[in-house]
Amino acid sequence: xxxxxxxxxxxxxxxxxxxxxxxxxxxxxxxxxxxxxxxxxxxxxxxxxxxxxxxxxxxxxxxxxxxxxxxxxxxxxxxxxxxxxxxxxxxxxxxxxxxxxxxxxxxxxxxxxxxxxxxxxxxxxxxxxxxxxxxxxxxxxxxxxxxxxxxxxxxxxxxxxxxxxxxxxxxxxxxxxxxxxxxxxxxxxxxxxxxxxxxxxxxxxxxxxxxxxxxxxxxxxxxxxxxxxxxxxxxxxxxxxxxxxxxxxxxxxxxxxxxxxxxxxxxxxxxxxx
Length: 274
Hints:
The chain has 12 helices and 6 strands. The chain has helices at 2-13, 18-24, 29-36, 44-53, 59-72, 89-98, 117-127, 133-151, 164-168, 174-187, 240-256, 260-273; strands at residues 101-106, 157-163, 193-198, 212-216, 225-229, 234-237. The protein has a 6-stranded mixed beta sheet, with helices on both faces. The protein is elongated and about 65 Å long.
């Protein structure tokens, strides 16, 4: 995505159309569009030809961008799990790992980044009925690997809004749910985590369309991405008008939910009742 945004910026600065850029590398306008969105791999020769077309002759600048192209083609750690992942999800894991701010609304269950191992195992078993125990464990392992991002020294900011329904819907036995609630209380006190609970008592709210994730990136050239998961696919939305609507919905959810301290009190109350 970073390389694609840089190529788009260079192309636009020279006033070159996507069609002309595609012609220069023996490709279509749509391929240039996919390259600029970071949705296809990059051939070094294509990047070299585009840089020449865009008038980039400085060897240091060219090498910097070519190095980025080589890095973009290296498979991420999550690719070793593609045998147990739906085809649309590895893209999300890569975006999640690159984000500097992750904002989430979740209603069905506790978000994967906040799940305990036991709770995650219960969720995966429910979602992968008929899967072998080995496949279930690999999916759980991936989820735990993703969570290391939450605790890393360079961890991004996380803003979570969990619907109370996600906390009252049992996955696993009583001890699993108690452990999950205590984990949420503990994680919510980390400096890079803002956790709020949307209580039943509030009634209808701006999250009526369901769960979604907003991903923001450190590079100013990269647009925010909204991730919406469906039963057999997922949407990756990056048009500004789409992103703005989801940003507004999340802003309203945050405004209407109790703050982090009050939400922790709500979690403690649920823990006492469990």
